[in-house]
Amino acid sequence: MRGDLGHSTPAQAGVARLIRPLLGVGISLVFVYLAIRNLSWPQIRDALAAVDLRYAPVALACLALGYAARITRWWIMLLPTRSTLLWRQAAAPYLISIAANNVLPFRMGDIMRLFAFRGQVGLEASRVAGTLLVERLLDLFALLAIFVLVLPFVPTSESAERIASLARWAAACGGLAIIALILVAVLERLVVRRLEAHPLTQAIPLAPKVLATVTSLSDTLRAIGRPSRILSLCLLSAAAWLCEGGVFVVAARAAAVPLDVPGAFFSLAVATLSTLLPSSPGYVGTFHFFAMQAALTFGAMPAAAAAFAIVVHFALWAPTTLAGALAVLARGARRPRDWSIGLRPMKTDTLLPARFDDA
């Protein structure tokens, strides 16, 4: 009998594979409609035409400094497991993964980054996964810290209350993630190593590999968790988000919306936290809606707020996508034997089900 319980046909698997991206596109379209439902295209066009492009180099400089801090942070997290890794060797996979996330569904860039160092001893996918988990937590905590710091400067309104509710949900997700990481470390010490030596475990298919992955992940988290290294990572996270906040400040000036520095960072926090919601690649719609709502909260006119949301999204999306594309071209121009690391071709059908969200 076809389609037995617990098994799926190729057609069912194909439908399931399409559901999530279609759902993301649908959610994006809903938020696009909510953002512009009371605006006409001529209003948005005129607001975009009034954007002062002289601010573009400043925004690009802020973005570049922020991503340099992010790449450095990831490089420091990788060093405990591969001390000979060069900064530039971490930079290319990082930029490529960001560009892939901007244009591909299922956060494919994160999955590509897991396997960026395939074949390199000490940089197995399970070890790289530990660095990605720490990276996401650091980003979440930085955003929540920004939100708490700027909240006293936010005018009281119904939309601000809704945004605060979103931040509380994000904080709850962050707390659960911390608990999960602690459980991984504790279980690895108390349970996993005993199970690895048990004869029954060796008889269960895939069990040794799963336990080895948990052990590798736990070892990576403990290596990253040294106090001096954690301090460096926190400082780099702060630098990265301060620079990205600078992009919002510059975009507000360029679009002539009345966002002061606290308002711009409030927009940064809520727009980035909104990316926790499922959406299309690049967070189209969800990012724009919440960035626009933040500008409206501070008294911006709707058309100017929409222009601000479009400008800041483009300022974040376009340069990182271009940088990732250039990284791909630069690596492709070299002979394969000269690559110190490589993003080897991977079968899409083995990657699509694997996804974890970020802040």
Automatic annotation (TrEMBL):
<feature type="transmembrane region" description="Helical">
    <location>
        <begin position="57"/>
        <end position="79"/>
    </location>
</feature>
<keyword id="KW-0812">Transmembrane</keyword>
<dbReference type="InterPro" id="IPR022791">
    <property type="entry name" value="L-PG_synthase/AglD"/>
</dbReference>
<keyword id="KW-1003">Cell membrane</keyword>
<keyword id="KW-0472">Membrane</keyword>
<feature type="transmembrane region" description="Helical">
    <location>
        <begin position="18"/>
        <end position="36"/>
    </location>
</feature>
<feature type="transmembrane region" description="Helical">
    <location>
        <begin position="289"/>
        <end position="310"/>
    </location>
</feature>
<dbReference type="Pfam" id="PF03706">
    <property type="entry name" value="LPG_synthase_TM"/>
</dbReference>
<feature type="transmembrane region" description="Helical">
    <location>
        <begin position="166"/>
        <end position="187"/>
    </location>
</feature>
<feature type="transmembrane region" description="Helical">
    <location>
        <begin position="137"/>
        <end position="154"/>
    </location>
</feature>
<feature type="transmembrane region" description="Helical">
    <location>
        <begin position="261"/>
        <end position="277"/>
    </location>
</feature>
<feature type="transmembrane region" description="Helical">
    <location>
        <begin position="230"/>
        <end position="255"/>
    </location>
</feature>
<protein>
    <recommendedName>
        <fullName>Flippase-like domain-containing protein</fullName>
    </recommendedName>
</protein>
<keyword id="KW-1133">Transmembrane helix</keyword>
<feature type="transmembrane region" description="Helical">
    <location>
        <begin position="85"/>
        <end position="104"/>
    </location>
</feature>
